[in-house]
Design goal:
With 696 residues, the chain is α+β, with helices and mostly antiparallel strands. It has 30 helices and 11 strands. Strand 10 and strand 11 form a beta hairpin.
Length: 696
């Protein structure tokens, strides 16, 4: 693709990025003076047959018109051209010189309130224009906001046009559905993750950017209230009550409680006065202490029994806050880690290792905390520092292996666990973690050997028994997998994951009733275990208990509304009960979550066919074969629906496709012959009518 010329004028100079839906390139427009640069986006159609290209062409044209309209705003890239070449589709847009906002919002460097208000105003001014066009951006995040070099204004980019076009589907009414899930985790609210974005979904993303700017924290580092799902952030920022109130409204969990559009959010921001007195989290300096280390005081208070662990921990945290003792800070970090206050724990470990650079334990705990915070590169550096100081540090080698495993560097992870085991061959944890890395490679036989060593050292190591069951399941040794899960629940009877996985192996063995019993145990332990509810529904379906299966799927989608598999399976169970309207509603929910799944469209087509809604059935089958042209069942069923509509010529073409894909498909061959006979009869009737008219 590089150095090619598209449209007779756009010379591709470099590749900017892309994914499964398309690729983006930097290009020079050869028909303009001065090597005028632009961005070329290439759409990748899912197939190249005439029907697919016709649909893609129509969707492409519609998207280009939307982008052209949006590009009239000064801070949205202009659409310069769009064209088709060699059955491939291209968009050409203005290239914006500048830097991403993500380069400004760096972790640990919060902005002042005045800067944040200015930032929010800048974003919302552009977004208000987008919303007036009744367009939802759906992927507002710091990488899609460019600080333009020439005037330092923010430009909003990447409206997801290429991503949308390849996943749009025509519904039975001939309208385009845009329910594909697009967005960036952390900036995407729940309703958008469920496939139902609103204008206020964009407001949520802007609010998250504001909170990120104020706190210096990434979205995934912001805790939420487990009861309300609301974000907890006030104690992590210096912010006035007025701005805090506006941001809280922008990021409400319930979209109905947010500002309904960017214009209203902008009015709220513009109504704010410049901050005078900012509120700050309470963190008073500790009073001067007697010349005795915090760690010693902590032990003294505990030994007297005069105060409980919570009070002692609180006292120690205050006493160690400004300590210059590396040991005090290390102990402070341990307490904060156990309280799950990981950022504060990390700060304590960092300070301890700064005071005492050879403090291997502090470096190791620093690595463990960074691992919890998913800052894997930094965690690896910390573990390697601990190993450099103390080469025989088993905990550091094991922790290093865990980070490498999480980073998908599985071979290196195994090597790290091997180093730990050279030092301490009887480390059950190292054997188990080594097995997990081998499981990911996947080298299942070796993983099982590793788990066997772990449980030989520690017979009641239920996590190792559980992982061993996983490896056996993947080897399709389901009986042995069940036996391994049995050992896991023997040592930990409330291990819901083991009961669930045990059910999966029983399901593979065709022991559906036993599988239901195992899923029931998992659900009793964890009522919100949606996978167990979903798999339980599958087992009940295999037992032909479709009504009970529907009830199980209903539970699954209650706990995970964005599970398209559960919605699709519930549709299938309702279908078996001949509750076709409900089945279609369920299929529609699945399609809203994943409209590029051909099987769901095929299932929906069958339900429409059973209701004798043949036009709608054909539309659903069209979507199925558009997404998966080799789905012969859909071509065959499409032919049946077309016969019912007396569209014999189209039916013959559909049957031809089914027979071409599956030559031994007798039903399709017979239907093909019948449709051809009906087509001949129809032609004779038409010709007879013409002759009669001539005689008259």
């Amino acid at each position: 693709m590089l150095h090619t010329i598209l449209g007779g004028r756009y010379h591709i100079t470099s590749h900017l990025g892309g994914g499964g839906f398309g690729q983006t390139y930097l290009a020079e427009d050869r028909q303009l003076p001065g090597s005028h640069r632009c961005v070329v986006k290439k759409l990748l159609p899912v197939a190249s047959d005439p029907a697919t290209l016709q649909i893609a062409r129509r969707l492409f044209d519609t998207e280009a018109q939307v982008l052209h309209k949006l590009g009239s705003h000064d801070r949205i890239p202009q659409l310069l051209a769009y064209f088709e070449e060699n059955q491939e589709f291209y968009l050409v847009q203005e290239f914006v010189e500048g830097r991403e906002l993500s380069q400004e919002l760096t972790q640990g460097n919060p902005l002042g309130e005045g800067e944040v208000i200015s930032l929010l105003r800048d974003i919302l001014e552009v977004l208000a224009f987008v919303h007036r066009q009744n367009v939802i951006h759906r992927d507002i995040n710091p990488r899609n906001l460019i600080r333009r070099d020439r005037d330092s204004r923010l430009v909003l980019i990447d409206f997801g046009a290429v991503k949308q076009m390849t996943t749009q589907i025509i519904n039975p009414q001939g309208q385009t559905r845009l329910s594909v899930i697009i967005g960036t985790p952390g900036y995407m609210p729940s309703e958008q993750a469920h496939g139902n974005p609103k204008l206020s979904s964009d407001i949520y993303a802007v609010g998250i950017i504001g909170i990120q700017a104020l706190t210096g924290l990434l979205p995934n580092q912001l805790p939420t209230d487990p009861a309300t799902e609301e974000i907890i952030w006030h104690d992590r920022a210096s912010v006035s009550p007025e701005l805090a109130k506006v941001l809280d409204k922008m990021v409400r969990y319930d979209f109905r409680e947010r500002y309904p559009s960017a214009a209203e959010a902008l009015r709220a921001i513009e109504a704010l006065k410049a901050p005078t007195v900012a509120t700050v989290p309470v963190a008073k300096s500790a009073p001067a202490q007697p010349k005795k280390s915090g760690s010693l005081l902590f032990r003294v208070f505990l030994s007297t029994g005069l105060i409980g662990i919570g009070v002692a921990a609180s006292f120690f945290l205050v006493s160690a806050l400004n300590s210059s003792s590396a040991t005090d800070l290390y102990n402070r970090g341990n307490i904060l880690y156990n309280l799950k206050r990981y950022e504060e724990a990390l700060a304590a470990y960092q300070k301890a290792s700064q005071i005492r650079p050879d403090y291997a334990e502090a470096w190791k705990e620093r690595g463990k905390t960074l691992y919890i915070l998913k800052r894997h590169s930094e965690a690896l550096d910390a573990y390697e520092k601990a190993i450099q100081i103390q080469p025989d540090y088993v905990g550091a080698w094991t922790g290093r292996g865990a980070v490498l495993d999480a980073s998908k560097r599985y071979e290196e992870a195994v090597a790290s666990f091997d180093e730990a085991l050279k030092i301490q061959p009887d480390s059950a944890e190292a054997w188990k973690e080594r097995g997990d890395a081998l499981l990911n490679l996947p080298r299942y036989e070796e993983a099982i050997s590793s788990y066997d060593r772990a449980v030989k050292i520690k017979q009641d190591y239920y996590e190792a028994w559980y992982s061993r069951g996983w490896a056996l399941h993947n080897l399709q040794q389901y009986e042995q997998a069940v036996a391994s899960y049995d050992r896991a629940v023997e040592f930990k009877s409330d291990y819901d994951s083991a009961w669930y996985s045990r059910g999966n192996s029983l399901l593979k063995l065709g022991r559906h009733k036993k599988a239901v019993e195992s899923y029931d145990r998992a659900i009793r332990l964890k009522p919100s275990h949606y996978q167990a509810w979903y798999s339980r529904g599958n087992a009940l379906g295999n037992l032909r208990q479709h009504k009970e299966a529907v009830e199980s799927y209903e539970k699954a989608v209650r706990f995970k509304p964005d599970s398209y598999e559960a919605w699709n399976s519930m549709g299938w169970a309702l279908h078996q009960l001949r509750r076709y309207e409900e089945a279609i509603n369920s299929y529609d929910r699945a399609i809203n979550l994943r409209n590029n799944d051909s099987q769901i469209w095929y299932n929906k087509g069958n339900a429409e066919y059973n209701l004798k809604r043949y036009e709608r059935a054909v539309a659903s089958y069209d979507s199925a074969v558009y997404l998966q042209p080799e789905l012969w069942e859909a071509w065959y069923s499409r032919g049946n629906a077309l016969v019912e509509l007396n569209r014999y010529e189209d039916a013959v073409a559909s049957y031809d496709k089914a027979v071409q894909l599956k030559p031994d498909f007798r039903d399709a061959i017979q239907a093909q012959k019948k449709a051809r006979r009906l087509l001949e009869v129809e032609k004779l009737k038409r010709e007879g009518t013409k002759e009669s008219k001539k005689e008259v």
